Structures are given as structure tokens and as C-alpha cells.
Amino acid sequence: MKSIFDFLIRKFVKDHKNVNSQLVRQSYGTLGGNVGIIINSSILVLEIVIGLFLNSIAITADAFHNLTDALSSLVTIFSFKLANRPADDKHPFGYGRIEYITALLFSGAILVVGFEFLRSSFLRVLHPVNIPFNKVSFICMLCAIPLQVFLNRFTNYIGDVIDSSALKASALESFTDILVLSMVTFSLLITRFTTFPIDGYIGVIVSLFIFHSGIELGREMLGTLIGKAPEKEFVEKLKNSVISYKYICGVHDLVIHNYGPGRYMASLHAEVPSNISIMELHDVIDQAEKEIGKRMNVYLSIHMDPINTDSPEIMGLKEEVYKKIKVIKGIVSIHDFRVVGGSEEKTILFDVVLDKTSFKDNEEKDLQAQIQDIIFSINPSYRSIITFDREFY
Fold this sequence. Notes:
Strand content: 5-15%
Protein name: Ferrous-iron efflux pump FieF
Distance between the termini: 37 Å
Membrane topology: Multi-pass membrane protein
Largest sheet: 3 strands, mixed
Low-confidence stretches: none
Pfam families: Cation_efflux, ZT_dimer
Shape: elongated
Radius of gyration: 29 Å
Main location: membrane
Organism: Clostridium chromiireducens
């Protein structure tokens, strides 16, 4: 089946390998939407005819479900065109988040269909109707299942290729369609062997599947719109890319904003040796921003943090402090380690990175005292100034 998918992509998506291009992403979205319209419209017509012919609430309700899917495919095409609008004064990072809004609308559509399906099915349970088995109708319903499977796998495939939340959401919706269609077809088969009014009960079960899919999709998209943490793989790739440049020996205070699939804005602090020319360091940082930004499709801003790397005493003290405080649960790392003062009394300044869940803001004072006691154990003449940072990924 993958070969068919690749054929369709090559046929209808120009420059299909350049998935970072917004025009290419729009072509993928249009292709997915058109395939969805064709398949869902075909099943819609088929189910309306069979549902009315057999007087089946399950089949008729699923027909209207496919009408919603066909309209959703139109929304997919429309959303990709909107998301591809260029940035302007009011939206300097473009309109990429429209894809997430579209996926959220999908979840709402799924919940509406689930509610209507549940209501109709419950009424059919209260007022059962015998559904006559019809061989031709059963075969037609059975043939519709592979069409839905094809749509699900194709939409999910191109959604993965361009990392589109809207297409992945559409694929999830089509997966519920497979469940619904399979259950409805099964209920039609059962009518051949029993007079029990299974039509309504099958409808109730299927509607619960639909509700679950809608809730999960809505929760995922709401989290993205509110601002969930970025993918760990993206974070690690970005950090490793920055550290690979000459003189950069550490990265911290990384913040990533998502403005739509493939549209990121990131800022971070890069630790660099304090004994290197500022102009030379600036050239390295400028090169890193441009090259990594282009390679990872991210607007990258790097702040330089000079650190003392040629003092064995300071480096040894930093290692000793970190070794003793890292045993405290919730401490991730330390950075910006500096030592000021004379030989008898010194002040150690550094930032401590805490994970997202271990400490509340009102607990930081006690944590600071705990760290100070550890530093006292190293040398009673040392005092400390500690700043706490939080991970945003």
C-alpha cells in the first residue's frame, strides 16, 4: 500500500521531498483533503441508500457521520491554505497554528456526531425495529471497509511525512470511521441469524468509541494551543547542534515556542570561554544561529554566557558542588558558575536548574538553605548566591 501512497504523492505534490516548504505542505494537505472527500462521499451515498432501504438507524447515522467527514476534508484543505498565509504585522510568525485549531474543530465534530449517534441508538434500544438481512446490502457495506482503511492509512502516512497535526487528527477520525463501519456491518450480518434488535445496541457501543476519540484529540490539541512542552527529540537535537560549534561548551535556559508545524522560535544561553575574543565568539554564535535555523527550520536566538574555563580551582570547585547537590531530587543541572572575593572569604554564584514538578515556588527558600549547608560543608568561609531556573521542555 505504501507504493500506492508514494505514487499519489509524486503525482500530485510538486517537489514532494521538500517538506519544510509551506507550499509543499499545502499540497500535501490538499491531496489528503481531496482523497478524503472522494472516499467519504462515496461511502455517504452508499450508506444513505442502504440505510433508507433497510430502515437501519446504525447505517443511516453512519451515513451522516461520513457527511461530517467529507466536510472535515474541505476544512482540511481550507486550513492548509490559511496556514500558508505569509507573516504580517499582526502575526509576525505566520498562521501555522490554524492547523491546530482545525484539529480542535475535528474533535468537536467527532463529539457532536458521537452524541447524535448515542441519542439515536438509545431511542432504537427503547423502540427496537427488526432489520431484514439483505445480501447485496451486506456485500456493499463490506466493500466500504477497505476504502476507510485506505483513507486512514494514507492520511496518517502523509501526516507523518509533513508532521501535520490536522492530518493526524483526520486520520484518527477516519480510524473511528473504520470501527463504526465494521460494527454496523457486523450488526447487519447478525440480523441473518437472530431476531434480537442488535441495531441500537451496536450503535451505543460505537458511539462510546467516537466519544473517546473526540475527547483524546481535543485534549491533545488544547495542550498544544495552550503551550505544551516541545518534543524531547527536537530539544536534544537542537542542544547537540549548538554544542557542536567551536568554543560552545554548554547550553541552558532553552525556551521553545511553537507557532505551527515546522515553525519554531527558540532562545537559549550558550556557555563560552571568557578568555576568547568577543568578536571571534560573536562570529561563531552568528554562524550557529543561521546554520541551525536553516537546517532545523527554527528562528534561533543565542545569548552568550562567558565562563572561566582556564582556572583548575574554579572548575574543580564547580564539579565538587554539583556532585554534592545533584543527589537532591529535582535538581537537573547547574550553570553560570562564578567565584568572586578574596582568598579568605569567597562568594559562589550559580544557577540551579530544577525540573518542572519537584519543587513549588514557596519551597525554593528551604532548598536554598539546604544547598548553602552543602557549600558550608565544603568550606565554612564560602557563601552563596543561588538563582533557580525551571526547565521549559
